[in-house]
Amino acid sequence: MDFNLSPKVEALRTSIRTFVDERLIPLEADRANYDEHENISQEVLAKFRAEARSQGLWALQMPVARGGRGLGLAEMAPCYEEMNRSIFGPMVFNSAAPDDGNMMVLEKVGTDAQKRRWLQPIVDGEVQSSFAMTEPMDDVGEGCGSDPALTTTRATRTNTGWRIHGRKWFITGAEAARHFMLIARTSEDERKGLSAFLFHADQPGWRIVRRIPIMGPEEHGGHCELEFDGLEISDDDRLMEVGDGLKLTQIRLGPARLTHCMRWTGLARRSLEIAMAHASQRRSGTGRLIERESVQALIGQAGMDIQTGRLLTMYAAWKLDQGDFARKEVSMAKVVVADALHRAADTALQLLGAKGYSRDTPVEWIYRYARQARLVDGASEVHRMVLASFMRREGTEFFGWDAPR
């Protein structure tokens, strides 16, 4: 792969960086720009979304015909990284989870009618969306977390479509979402037992049980527990074929996990930027913090971790752009970048001292947010198990080189 950015991508990256530096980072210092869940307020968001869209910095992952910029994943990576140097960035550019992953999978597998009804309003910023897969643990200790094969929410055939019964939880953005993607069981087949559906928030037969309180700042719409008690879904709103639900999760989750890595790299970089600016100014004894070897070691290690994760992310993005599922490459990137983000945020907080623990900088926000990175979209331990499985199956070919086809 070639690490040189094309003129088009470099121009976008530079424009995004300028927008973030000049328009978004200054917003973070004023608590009036936040909502009650520590995200950008809707009023402020609407204003800056309009600005980003007018500058052609909107929905980079979507085709030009849909109002996006038509970037591939390897092209998205440097741009997403720049976006999330601000904690408000991804939402402003319409590249935040879960909308980001939902848009990409709908564009890839939806019918033309489904794209018009369900996808285009998300691209246009008219609605938010949610992906309902994860389920609570049942009485025997099982639950659909990282493994969708454990799904118990059931879709039963009716004369006109499907009726849904079951429960989901930790569904990101559900309280604000209007368009939902749902994974439910349609048979007991090990590989073809799940199917995917679309439904609107106004349809009867389901409810939000609660918005689950969490440790860190929240996405718009939070993380919710949902109950389905007879939700009726037309067969026209089934995604792909009956039994393709597991396939859809594989298509969606790989790129979605990787865009998390792109964004987290930006947050990690921002943490180090804040830490280094402080260490360069703060006097300690006869010199400045930045001159101390112990401080340099902390910064150097964090920087190396960020760059390692960044390279893994770019490689996985390149593989996905070649049509590969890149499961092991995505898993590697997910684990390494999650750790790098946490190290960078922890390093920044440590070097800033009490200032880092306060709300005078966004470091404490990033620190609390960063802890979830090792859990969401598959815990790090699960991804390491995936890698071990590949190593057992492939042997020395696990470390093979990509050869020309």
Relative strand content? 5-15%
CATH superfamily of the largest domain: Butyryl-CoA Dehydrogenase, subunit A, domain 3
Query: What's the CATH first level of the largest domain?
Result: Mainly Alpha
Shape type: globular
CATH architecture of the largest domain: Up-down Bundle
| Strand ordering within the main sheet | 1-4-5-8
Number of helices: 12
Write the layout of secondary structure elements.
Layout: H1 7-24, H2 42-54, H3 73-83, H4 89-92, H5 99-109, H6 112-123, E1 129-132, E2 154-157, E3 161-172, E4 179-185, E5 194-200, E6 206-211, E7 223-234, E8 238-239, H7 245-281, E9 283-284, E10 287-288, H8 293-321, H9 327-352, H10 354-357, H11 363-370, H12 380-394
Parallel strand pairs: 1-4
Antiparallel strand pairs: 2-3, 3-7, 4-5, 5-8, 6-7, 9-10
Helix pairs in contact: 1-3, 3-7, 3-8, 5-6, 5-7, 7-8, 7-9, 8-9, 9-11, 9-12
